[in-house]
Structures are given as structure tokens and as C-alpha cells.
Amino acid sequence: MHSDADSNPSPLLAVDNLTLRFSSASGNVVDGVSFSVSPGETLCIVGESGCGKSVTALSLMGLLPMPPAQITAGSAMFDGKDLLRMPRREMAAIRGNRMAMIFQEPMTSLNPAYRIGDQIAEVVLRHRPVTRKQARARALEMLDRVKIPAAVKRLDDYPHQLSGGMRQRVMIAMALANDPALLIADEPTTALDVTIQAQILQLIRTLQEETGTALIMITHDLGVVAEVGDRVAVMYAGRIVEQGSVDDVFIDPQHPYTLGLMSSIPSLSKREGRLTTIPGMVPTVDTMPPGCRFAPRCPFAGAECKAAVPPLTDLSPGHAAACIRAPLEAEAHFDGAVA
Amino acid sequence: MLSYILRRLAIAIPTLILVSMFIFTLQKILPGDPALALAGEERDAAALEFIREKYKLNDPIYEQYLAWAGGALKGDLGISLRTNQPVTELIGQKLPVTIQLAVMAIIIAFIIGIPMGVLSAVKKGTVFDYIANIVALSGLSIPNFWLGIMLILLVSVNLGWLPASGYVSPFIDPLRSLETMIMPAFVLGTALAATLMRHTRSAMLGVLRADYVRTARSKGLGETVVVIKHAFRNALLPIVTMTALLFGELLAGAVLTEQIFTIPGFGKLIVDAVFTRDYAVVQGVVLCTAVGYLLINLVADIVYFLLNPRMRSVL
Ligand SMILES: Nc1ncnc2c1ncn2[C@@H]1O[C@H](COP(=O)(O)OP(=O)(O)OP(=O)(O)O)[C@@H](O)[C@H]1O
Ligand code: SF4
Ligand SMILES: [Mg+2]
């Protein structure tokens, strides 16, 4: 199994061979996923809807409902400890503290019953030896940092009084309130208007620079990857098919799926331009083909592709792809024609 | 807030008028001559006519209604045809008994139903959940009267721990009052608890799936805080609505329970009045129930309003 330990001598988070399934389905929803994140770095995980991005993130946060989910293999070392085998209490002490997450659904992720100031203060009080007053002061400071206008007044607002973009800012404020070493952002802009999307992305970038937190940015949008990512992991049907620095992967994509994504980069102005131009359908968990999971849609596929799972192989330092044809010839391009 | 309450009251008034007209008319249409019932053995025409005149039974129905409604507004609901007592006085005697029974039953229902519902939602699919659901289902399917009679046989007749019937006002002897009321309240309360438990469970299952509960967990909060502060707090809204709807079940249950334990309450008053065609009492009792129903709903609305920040800012 590929390990990119050499490209990351002292990673903050090192996920190795993460494999998980749901009791309702026969196949693995996440299958042997490995990646690592260094302090202060941004790793983008990109892939089509349903490829297992959220599930991966949630499993790292210990937020997957188990059952039905079941982690069958792998480890995720964070601060020298395995997140996947951590007692509940220990995990809870890390969540919202050393490691925080913002979600795909800003409209429903805040508790409608409590004032936003209190919801931010709550996470501060949980992890820091502060008074209520100090926690509230921190909440105010955070609202300022996420550029919510008239923050003092907003502190006592309820979530329903805020727009989606403002709610996502509150979520960011909450996630960063304890200066986490790692922030996981699961498609933080997908549910927002286009103009707001750019603002929120910009905000996350600025805050990351200010605080030096590492970031896992989950997205289905290569535009986002280009904008915020240091490194990128391309996911397809529960596996990482290509991984490397954003420059390497964008300039010299090595997996046919990545090539396909490139030729269908949605422009930032058109959200409906999601990654749908690769012909064929993503296989469902129950109908995973043997060998390479991309084979049914791959223009380069041959019989040998179905024989065994192509391992994620280093092609150049820090750049790996899981395709038996890699490295692809320089001329190779995705013409969309499936034999 | 005040304007909200006033608006709710403004809706309540026409409702009450409609209800009162409805019961009044219905009674007049129903077969059976109250004059006959009153006259008893004396069935000669003169006596019947005298009775009809005395109780204004010959007047046009709308005049009878207006006279009755006018009186009701002044707190005069007429005279019981049977006991010759003012209806308001009768209600004043019996109502507190039933209110005591109902309040005790509701408290028991809350104490049992809500924690059980919360727990079985949190432990969904576990042995605890199955057992709790079986218990609740039995609670719903075991008739009140059967449970009541069994309790009387066991606790009163065999063990002699509690009185089987009767009533003592809590203002006279609180302990004795509790003794006489605890069994009926238990019978009534457990039936409600079963309903309450099932509704609490489904409300909790809904909110436990909510994104904000996941957010609460992502903050590193303990499971108790997540369940109580973040989930249950939001499940309260449907539970409050539910509790108000339980009022009907509560009243029906109270009527039955009072019969079993021979408690001289509102329920017994209703039953006796209906059987003896004591129209004034029936009308008064139904009107009183309607007022009670509207009041409970008003209280539920206010609680809902206080619990729901969304409502507060809309108004
Ligand atoms: N609770 C669950 N039970 C069963 N299957 C699930 C559950 N949650 C997710 N899945 C399955 O796991 C797969 C991965 O889902 P996931 O939410 O991680 O996708 P995603 O990459 O985040 O997609 P999107 O871009 O739509 O958010 C999907 O096929 C989904 O059907
Ligand atoms: S292994 Fe074969 S099927 Fe899979 S991506 Fe490479 S060429 Fe295509
Ligand atoms: Mg997702």
C-alpha cells in the first residue's frame, strides 16, 4: 500500500488504509484511503458526489454513526494517537479543540434554539478554563474575525435571523474559536450563492493564513482546488486515484479520471456545471467493478484493468496515481469516448 | 407577546360561541322530553305544561339560547333539574377534584413518558428500546378499567395499603388526599405516559438526526449535553403540541377513572347528568370543557411561543 510518509516527514494527520462500509451495503464506501496533512498545509479532497468525501471526513472526526457505519481497517494518526481507535472521551476532548469541522449545510448546522453568541461561547467553555464572560468575549472576537458586520448586535441573534452565508461564517467562527491545528471543511460553499461562495472561500483562506491551521478542504469543484489547495487528493468511488501537489496534478494529470475532471472543470460562475461530463455513471457500493473502479468509464481500460486493483504508485516525488497505464503518454487526453 | 395572546383570545371567542350554540341546539334536537323526565310519575298534561312554563321549554329555541348564554356570561348556568342546585355551584364542587386528578396524572405521565421516550430514542434498536416500546404498547392496549380494577383488588383489597375509593380534598387532609388519588392518577397517568413516550421517542428520533446535533458533537460536547441541551430542547416543541392534544384523552380517561374509583368529580357529574337528562348540567359541563380545552391550547401556544425563537421574532 502506498504511503506518502516520505513527502511528509512529520505530518499532523496521517491517514493510512482507511476502509469503511455501511451495514446496508456489501462494498466498502471508503476503500484503502491514505493521505497525510502537514501543519499549516491545505489538502483538497476532490471527487464526484457520493465518492465518500464526507464519510471520510466524518470518520476522522468520530462523527459517523456506528452502526450502520463500520471501520474495517486503517489508522488515522493525529498528535501521535489513532483517531479511529480512540476512546469516546478522548475523542471528544480533541473535537472542537485541536480539530474542528465545518459542514456542507450551513442552514441547518446551527441549533435553532440558541443564540449564536452562546453557541460559539459553548465550544470555548467546553475546552478552555474560562469564565462565561471570557467565552462571550471570545465569541465576539471570532464574529469580528469572520467579518460579520455589527458583531456585537449579532451575538444575540438566533440562527434564523441570519442568511446562509452569515450562518456559514458563524460555523467558521465556532470551528476556529479554539485555534484548532486542523480544520476540516466539507464543501463549505456548495449550498451558498455563487457570489457568497467566493467570499467564504476567501475568508477561509485569510483565516488559515492568520492562524496557521492545517486545512482539509473537501470539494467537488476543481476551481476551489486551484484557489486554495497546496496538495490535492482525487477520489473516485471510495478510493484515492491520484494525489500530489496542486501544480503537479493540474499541469500533468496522470489518472484518466483526473483527466476527465480537468476537461469538465466547471467555471466558478456556473454551479450546475458539476462534474458530470464524464460519460457513464459512478458505480454504486453494491455494484463496484472488480479491479479498477473507474474501468467502466475509462477510455483507456483493458482486460488487465479488471484483474487487480491498481495500487497508488509514485510517479515522481509526491505525485502518485492509481492506474496501470500511468505514467500516461504526454499526448493522452480525455476524449470522452468509451469503447 | 401580549398582542399574540390577545389575538389567540380573539379567535377563542367565536369558537366558544359556536360550540355553545352547537351543544344547545343538539340537545334540543335529541329525542326525549325533559319535562317528562322531570315530571317523574306525574304524567298529567297540566303538570307537564307547568314544568314546561317554569323552565321556559316552550319559548323559541333562539330565545332559550340567548337567555342561557346571557346567564352564562354572568356566571349563571341555570339550575340542575335533578338536584335543584345552581349548575355553577355543582361545577365548582366537582371541577377541582378532576383538576387534581388530571394534574397528578399528567405529572406521572411526564415523569414516566418523557425520560422513557428520550432514552428509547437514544438507544434506538437496543433491547431497552424494544422493551420500552412493548411496555408502552401494553400501556396503550390494556384498558384503563381493567388496570384500575386490578389495582384495587391488589393494593386495596389484598394488601390493604390504599383506599379503593372516595375522595378527600387536599385542603382538608393533603396526605389522605394523596392516598385516595394516587391510584386513579396512576391508572390515568400510565395510559397517557404510553402515548407521551411514543411521541417523545419519535420527536427525539427526528431531532437526533438533525445537522445541529452533529455540530454539537463536533464541538466535543458530552453525549448528555448533546442529547438534553441540543436535541431534547428542540424536541420540546412537538412534545408541547402533543401534550395539548392529550387533553381530550385526559378528559375521557378521567371520566372513566372516576367511575372505577367512585370519585365524585367532573366525570361523574357528566355521566350522571347525561343519564338523567339534566340538560342544564350537561350544557354547563360541556361549555366548561370547551373553555378548558381552549385554555389548555392557549397555554400550549404560549409555551410554544416562548420555546421557539423563530416565533418570537416573527411577531
Ligand atoms: N448513513 C449511511 N448509510 C448508508 N450509506 C451511506 C450513509 N451515508 C453515506 N452513505 C453512502 O456512502 C457514500 C459516500 O457518501 P458521502 O456522503 O461521503 O459522499 P460525498 O463524497 O460527500 O458526496 P457529496 O458531494 O454529495 O457530499 C454514498 O454512496 C452514500 O450513499
Ligand atoms: S487502471 Fe485501467 S481502467 Fe483504471 S484508470 Fe487506468 S486505464 Fe483506466
Ligand atoms: Mg459530502
From TrEMBL, chain A:
Q: Which GO terms describe its biological process?
A: peptide transport; transmembrane transport
Q: Which GO terms describe its cellular component?
A: plasma membrane
SMART domains recorded for this chain?
Answer: AAA
Principal place where this protein is found?
Answer: membrane
Q: Which PROSITE patterns match?
A: ABC_TRANSPORTER_1, ABC_TRANSPORTER_2
Query: Matching SUPFAM superfamilies, A to Z?
Result: P-loop containing nucleoside triphosphate hydrolases
- Specify the protein's topology with respect to the membrane: Peripheral membrane protein
Which intervals of the chain form a coiled coil?
none
GO MF terms here are:
ATP binding; ATP hydrolysis activity
Alphabetically ordered keywords of this record? ATP-binding, Cell membrane, Membrane, Nucleotide-binding, Transport
Pfam families (UniProt xref): ABC_tran, oligo_HPY
Domain ABC transporter: from-to ranges:
13-262
- The protein's superkingdom reads Bacteria
Compartments where found: Cell inner membrane
What family is this protein classified in?
Belongs to the ABC transporter superfamily.
What is the name of the protein in this document?
Answer: Oligopeptide/dipeptide ABC transporter ATP-binding protein
Automatic annotation (TrEMBL), chain B:
Question: Residue ranges of the ABC transmembrane type-1 domain?
Answer: 95-304
Show the InterPro entries listed in the entry. BPD_transp_1_N, MetI-like, MetI-like_sf
What superkingdom heads the lineage?
Answer: Bacteria
Query: Where found, per UniProt?
Result: Cell membrane
Q: Which residues cross the membrane?
A: 9-30, 99-122, 134-161, 181-199, 236-261, 281-307
Q: What is its main location?
A: membrane
This chain's protein is named Peptide/nickel transport system permease protein
Among Pfam families, the record links this protein to: BPD_transp_1 (PF00528), BPD_transp_1_N (PF19300)
Q: Which Gene Ontology MF annotations are present? A: dipeptide transmembrane transporter activity
Which Gene3D superfamilies does this UniProt record tie to the protein?
A: MetI-like
What the record says about family reads: Belongs to the binding-protein-dependent transport system permease family.
Q: Which UniProt keywords apply?
A: Cell membrane, Membrane, Transmembrane, Transmembrane helix, Transport
Output a single Gene Ontology CC term carried by this record. Answer: plasma membrane
The membrane topology of this protein is: Multi-pass membrane protein
